[in-house]
Write a structure and sequence with these properties.
Layout (H helix, E strand, L loop, with lengths): L2 H6 L2 H9 L8 E6 L3 H11 L4 E9 L11 E5 L6 H9 L25 E9 L8 E6 L5 E6 L2 E7 L5 E4 L7 E9 L23 E6 L14 E8 L4 E8 L6 E5 L2 E5 L2 E6 L14 E7 L8 E3 L2 E3 L4 E6 L1
Parallel strand pairs: 1-2, 2-3, 16-18
Antiparallel strand pairs: 4-9, 5-8, 5-10, 6-7, 6-9, 10-19, 11-12, 12-15, 13-14, 13-16, 17-18
Length: about 325
Amino acid sequence: MSSSKQRSTVPSMTVARALADKSFPARVFLVAVGKAAYRMAAAALDVLPVPVADGVVISKYGHLGEPLPGLRFFEAGHPVPDDNSVIAAEAAQAVTLPHTWNAIDGQDGGNDYWRGAARYSKSFPKPELKEHERLFIEFKGAAMSADVILNGRLLCHHEGGYSCFRADMTDALEAENLLVVSVDNGGNDRVYPQKADFTFYGGLYRDVNLIAVPEEHFELLKDGTPGIKVTPTVDLETKTAAVTVETRDNAASVAITVNGETKTVERSAEFVIENARLWDGVDDPYLYTATPSPSIPACWWTTTAGSIAMSALPRRVSSKR
């Protein structure tokens, strides 16, 4: 067989050629199945003139790549167990979170510890939620990048091994659920830091939590923040503090209380504290409290900023261990 004929039978090229110059309706649903399903789906996305509304990619163990927009991944072994199926089953082991796969080989300082991708999986029944509640999963740290997949649906992709991030699980929940988290600490040119004098430990090395919140709640997805920002500006000579409290939430209004004064606003409020008690390290580490509450006060969060402590807490369903 000549090289030109070999190229013509490559699945991805065949798909690209078949779809070229074709017209499609406004909504396209894509299904790719087989060992080459990932490459065929990627080729289709490259040439389709309209976005894919939804789709699935079902492929053999070890043959899926990075997430593709709008597509859900399902990975399975061959109907007759093959080498990959056996390897996947034998490699799996029970772990308790927090966990890192470099607990031993990352300790000797030899810079020869294993770096790559591994998957965590957990089956669980649908948690009991109150009416209109939404369920988020919170990762305190996943080194160095992670894909969160619930029942075959990609919930989020996160890059950055030292920052908190969350995903909304609500719409992907079923009566019985399979959560898969693919974590990768392999070498790359995207995730900071690129070089350091410490081990890039891989894994879910900090706590993972489920958090239930009312339909109206402070923003939980934006950059892993609590959706609340407190900025104090202190005049040391007059001992006066100007405090700005900003919120990201989906409630019509939010009530913010600082130093006994409450203001109801849409997003932000400013306060002035006269004769402020200044924070003084070990001798007098005093913190003021800013308490925000949307129209449903069960949704609260906790953070600190400067000399202001903000205190509140959402309902936690469980800590994932």
